[in-house]
Design brief:
The complex is a heterodimer of chains A (481) and B (446).
Chain A: H1 7-11, H2 19-29, E1 36-52, E2 55-73, E3 76-82, H3 87-97, E4 116-117, H4 134-151, E5 155-173, E6 178-196, E7 199-209, H5 221-237, E8 244-251, H6 258-265, H7 270-274, E9 295-298, E10 319-324, E11 327-328, H8 335-341, E12 349-350, E13 359-360, E14 364-367, H9 374-379, E15 383-395, E16 401-413, E17 416-421, E18 425-429, H10 430-433, E19 437-440, E20 445-446, E21 452-455, E22 458-461, E23 463-466, E24 469-477
Parallel strand pairs in A: 4-6, 8-15, 14-23
Antiparallel strand pairs in A: 1-2, 1-5, 2-3, 5-6, 6-7, 8-24, 9-10, 9-14, 10-11, 12-13, 15-16, 16-17, 16-18, 18-24, 19-24, 20-23, 21-22
Helix pairs in contact in A: 2-3, 4-5
Chain B: H1 3-16, E1 21-37, E2 40-58, E3 61-67, H2 72-88, H3 121-136, E4 142-161, E5 166-184, E6 187-190, E7 193-197, H4 206-218, E8 229-235, H5 237-250, H6 253-257, E9 278-281, E10 302-307, E11 310-311, H7 318-324, E12 332-335, E13 338-342, E14 347-349, H8 356-361, E15 365-373, E16 383-394, E17 397-410, H9 411-415, E18 418-421, E19 431-432, E20 436-444
The chains are: A alpha+beta (481), B alpha+beta (446).
Chain lengths: 481, 446
């Protein structure tokens, strides 16, 4: 497939469109009384190469392209999209989207002139991951297979995949916004199956980000991911039943930051707070965490999976302080909710694709480090759980109850990490859990770039991070009292 | 151009470019949704989509590509690229199209589309508004709403392969959901109810959906935790269906040949209590999961998955069947960017004779679970641990709501301790089950 040059060349020239045509489309969208209209163009090339049973059996490549037109008036959103790009289909979509506005008194779009690239530059574009020859990806997967099997003879199967994409977006809005961005994404995922007699276990690990493909290779990041997946699978063979009940829980650094994503992140998204359906509604300025906790959402970290130069409404991403020393300071906003709540936009308006309406979403969410040494945190616990890796999580933003499930955890007995335990779900109450954090480690780490967040049926890539923390009381859903 | 012609042209062109076999999926459709919140229109969304998924083989190697651009030049480029990708991919002795004599010869009309109704956007908005209003009217403690949404869509699927199979069918869908929010003493709860059907006339009325949504939400107010304990757990039909979904994952071909299933090697064994029979039936007229042929052009069927507690059949596509030395069950499901893989059509657990009320009456102290959250299910071992919300049963009565607890066990032992099965099966989604009582699980709480 030919690699397109720039968003203008992808979206405008091949479809005989000019900025003036699009201004006309925006004016069609604004013909009735509306506050705002925008056009979102997207073109995405994605590729998955996968190995199992020692063979690279699967290669898949997919192209998608389309445009969506949105009209906002008050709290109303009208949206229409099509995978056919032409002046005609855009005009039809504009008329469909504006159907939510029925009062006369249209406005005019600010004249559009030249398309600007995003002002930030958080990811390198010199070598798009979709242009790397297939043979290099196949070679990597085969090395992973060998490495995993070499780790331990009890590794009986390895499933590994490289998923890459290159996405171009172009956003034109009635306020004169005209911004384009090109977003690479790379993800390596490895699952190992270990077997010892009838005892079978799996372990998974991976990583990536908005990076060039070769970064997986240096310095042996792929080898680290592979060994981690294999180590987890082998560890599973020795795991014993997890405890049941409320106890002290120590979370390791990095990916356990999923706690923040579920326990507070979703509850601080602007839409839920504007509608007052979040357990955090009206808590701005109130204490919602221990003074040890400062929590940030930052979409501007270079090369991170959750980072973006601009969000999917063309707003530059930013660093937002959600909780400062225990006090709730901010919400995550998109254009609609920021404007209705009279708050600043934070660059968190994201969408899965042109077929979806943007809404407030997290980028990279993490807690700043504290003073404690991680080993001191563990040593402080007479009996509890030490959880270092997790599968997914979920939250009910209205009641505030959240869950996340361990994939690697150990018992702590008399201040020492003892035996590995099976996966268990941890459950807690969002507005309460951070108030029980009694120690924060000095070892902040961000995850390795595998997170995907789902909300209202839309998936977007995200990142999380955490230093080692001690939570005085969280319910552990094991099987043994 | 006729889609049939497009499909056969693409496959023919692929053959000329060096493909030895191939198949193509063409889907197109349009959908509409209208969301209302607190009586006002919140969003209206309309979409029009089409897509081609192409799989080409060069001997035993294959590759998959997909695009929404149907222009001749793009498709020719795509064909060329797919052949190149396939050549670079490892040969797999088990890959390939199904055997020709197995392909579906007649394509039954399963009555999957309803074009007798047509609505204006305003009428659709009115349905959502009516559903939400019914919820808000139930009780003054329903103080807020996440809204109500009506959506409908019309889709067409065409599948063709280089063995000469060409089949197509059309589906429609209608659905309405309501999500009320209730509050009491400063604490909020939300729940929902919905109805979804291929026929508009079979949809539950907006008034009923709104009322049930409100009742489900109100009964959660004042929820508390319970002590950590072993106790019987009664799963309401929606949550019982979630157990079936875990089972479905474990009997699908790919989990078996990859040896990532807790039901590996259990064919012919007692995996559930004798009262349990589970069927996957693709031929139920106008049901949401029905389809006349599968994602490889094989006839779909009714498969007895579990009979009297014994695991009777896996769900297989051609590839996993060859890997396992078995036969396809016509369960292939095809997506644009993946090879066909076995999945369920309409999967359900056969109802028993006991009413849900009687089941609850049979519990002295236990949990009636109405919502489960999180991903704490290990498909390889069957180890199960999930967040739960529901009502506590005391002396056979639903006594008070509970939340922030977990239930844990192992799926195999859970299916082997299903004590009672309710008579309340309702095929409201593609996986369905009646109320189920499991003898004992670990509940973690205070």
């Amino acid at each position: 497939m030919k690699q397109p040059v720039s968003p203008e060349h992808i979206f405008l020239a091949p479809h005989d469109l000019t900025p003036q045509h699009l201004e006309r489309v925006l004016n069609t969208a604004l013909e009735k009384r509306a506050d705002y209209a925008d056009i979102y163009f997207e073109s995405r090339t994605s590729e998955v190469v996968a190995l199992e049973e020692g063979l690279v059996k699967k290669t898949a490549r997919s192209l998608s392209q389309g445009a969506g037109i949105r009209v906002l008036t008050g709290e109303k959103t009208g949206y229409a999209h099509s995978d056919d790009i032409s002046l005609d289909t855009l005009q039809i979509a504009a008329r469909t989207a504006r159907a939510i506005a029925d009062e006369p008194g249209g406005v005019r779009s600010v004249p559009l002139s030249t398309i600007r690239p995003a002002s930030q530059n958080l990811y390198s574009l010199t070598s798009p991951p979709t242009t790397i020859p297939l043979v290099e990806k196949i070679a990597l997967l085969q090395r992973i297979d060998e490495e995993a099997r070499r780790y331990d003879p009890r590794i009986v199967n390895v499933m590994a995949s490289v998923a890459v994409e290159q996405k171009h977006i172009l956003i034109l809005a009635s306020d004169g916004t005209m911004v384009a961005d090109t977003q690479p994404l790379v993800r390596l995922q490895i699952t190992c199956i270990a077997a010892d007699g009838n005892n079978r276990q799996q372990g998974s690990h991976g990583g990536g980000g908005r990076i060039e493909f070769h970064l997986l290779l240096e310095p042996d990041r792929w080898r680290h991911f592979t060994r981690e997946a294999a180590r987890q699978a082998i560890l599973g063979l020795e795991s014993t039943p997890a405890p049941a009940g409320t106890m002290t829980v120590v979370l390791g650094s990095g990916w356990p930051g999923i706690l923040l994503h579920e326990a507070i992140g979703h509850g601080l998204e602007g839409d839920f707070n504007r509608k007052k359906v979040s357990a955090f509604s009206d808590l701005l300025g109130k204490k919602v965490a221990s003074e040890l906790c400062t929590v940030i959402d930052d979409g501007t970290l270079p090369n991170r999976r959750g980072s973006l130069n601009v969000d999917d409404e063309g707003t530059p991403t930013s660093r937002t302080v959600l909780i400062e020393k225990g006090v709730l300071r901010g919400y995550l906003q998109d254009r609609l909710n920021a404007s209705l709540m009279k708050m600043p936009r934070t660059g968190n308006g994201r969408r899965e694709s042109f077929a979806h309406i943007p809404m407030p979403r997290m980028t990279n969410t993490f807690m700043l480090p504290g003073d404690s040494a991680p080993e001191d945190i563990i040593a402080s616990v007479p009996r509890g759980l030490y959880a270092v890796s997790f599968g997914g999580g979920q939250v009910d933003i209205t009641s505030g109850k959240f869950v996340f499930s361990t994939s690697e955890a150990y018992l702590i007995e008399d201040g020492k990490v003892t035996r590995p335990v099976k996966g268990a779900t941890l459950i807690g109450n969002g507005p309460e859990v951070l108030t029980r954090i009694s120690m924060v480690g000095n070892d902040l780490a961000l995850d390795e770039g595998i997170g995907t967040c789902g909300k209202e049926g839309q998936s977007v890539p995200v990142g999380v991070g955490l230093p080692t923390i001690r939570i005085d009381g969280l319910t552990v859903g094991g099987t043994q009292v | 151009m006729q889609l049939e012609n497009l499909a056969t042209d693409v496959l023919e062109h692929a053959r000329r470019m060096g493909a030895t076999a191939g198949d193509i999926l063409i889907a197109s459709g349009e959908s509409f949704s209208a969301g209302v919140r607190l009586g006002e229109v919140e969003k209206v969304q309309q979409s029009q989509e089409k897509r081609i998924g192409l799989r080409l083989f060069v001997n035993q190697s294959s590759a998959i590509t997909s695009t929404a651009d149907f222009t001749r030049d793009t498709l020719n480029e795509l064909i060329e690229e797919t052949v190149a990708l396939a050549r670079a991919t490892a040969a797999d002795d088990f890959s390939g199209l199904p055997e020709q004599h197995l392909l579906a010869r007649d394509i039954p009309d399963l009555d999957l589309s309803d074009t007798t109704v047509s609505f204006s956007p305003e009428e659709k908005i009115a349905l959502a508004r009516e559903g939400e209003a019914a919820a808000l009217a139930v009780d003054s403690r329903i103080t807020n709403s996440e809204g109500a949404e009506f959506s409908n869509g019309s889709h067409e699927v065409l599948y063709a392969n280089s063995l000469g199979f060409v089949g197509r069918y059309r589906t429609t869908s209608y659905s309405l959901s309501v999500v009320p929010v209730a509050s009491q003493n400063g604490a909020m709860q939300r729940d929902y109810w919905y109805s979804s059907h291929r026929k508009f006339s079979k949809l539950e009325s907006p008034a009923t959906i709104g009322k049930i949504a409100a009742e489900r939400t109100l009964r959660r107010l004042g929820a508390r935790r319970v002590k950590t304990q072993d106790a019987p757990v009664v799963f309401d039909p929606q949550m019982a269906a979630s157990l079936l979904r875990h089972l479905a994952g474990a009997i699908s071909g790919s989990a078996l040949y990859r040896k990532t299933s807790f039901l590996l090697g259990k064919l012919g064994e007692q995996i559930a209590t004798r009262n349990v029979s589970i069927l996957d039936d693709a031929r139920i007229p106008s049901a949401l999961g029905s389809k006349p042929f599968d994602g490889e052009g094989l006839p779909t069927q009714r498969t007895t998955v579990v009979k009297d507690g014994v695991l009777n059949s896996y769900l297989l596509d051609s590839y996993s069947a060859r890997k396992l030395g078995m036969h396809s069950t016509g369960s292939a499901s095809r997506s644009f960017s993946d090879a066909p893989a076995a999945s369920t059509t309409n999967l359900f657990l056969e109802p028993g004779t006991v009413s849900p009320e009687e089941i609850i009456r049979s519990v002295r102290s236990g949990l009636y679970v109405t919502e489960l959250s999180g991903f704490g299910v290990n498909p390889v071992t069957g180890d199960y641990s999930r967040g739960a919300t529901g009502l506590w049963i005391e002396n056979g009565e639903l006594a008070y709501p509970v939340e922030e607890i977990t239930i844990a066990g192992n799926l195999l032992s859970m299916f082997q301790s299903i004590e009672v099965i309710g008579n309340d099966l309702d095929l409201r989604s593609t996986v369905a089950a009646p109320t189920l009582k499991i003898a004992q699980m670990m509940i973690a709480g205070e």
